[in-house]
């Protein structure tokens, strides 16, 4: 299977209590099953989120069926995803250069060993 990697970044609000709560929502087995199903249904094979201070980095491995625009449309039409996203705004904030209402921003690859 061919996959494509997407790397995104987003900030958490710089509040240790909120960061701890956010991490608890994302601990193994704590993410809502409807959310993990929506991720897999969109063609995302694997997703990892890393945290450094309050900056997060998401790495997604996606199969050939994944389309970010289709995923956004699927999410917009899924009430449970919308509920999750509204909850996550309690913890997440857009980067200083993000557009209004935008959280996760795709990162630009600037180096790859061997490429």
Overall description:
The protein has 4 helices and 5 strands. Strand 2 and strand 3 form a beta hairpin. The chain starts with a strand and ends in a 9-residue tail after the last strand. By secondary structure, the protein is of the alpha+beta class. The protein is 33% helix and 28% strand. The longest helix is centred in the first third of the chain and has 10 residues. Strands 1, 2, 3, 4 and 5 form a 5-stranded antiparallel sheet that branches.
Task: Summarize this structure briefly.
This protein has 115 residues and is α+β, with helices and mostly antiparallel strands.
What general form does the structure show?
Answer: globular
Mean pLDDT: 95
Terminal CA distance: 21 Å
Q: Helix count, per DSSP?
A: 4
- Order of helices and strands, N to C? EHHEEHHEE
Q: Kindly state the number of beta strands.
A: 5
- Rg, Cα atoms, Å: 15 Å
SSE class: alpha+beta
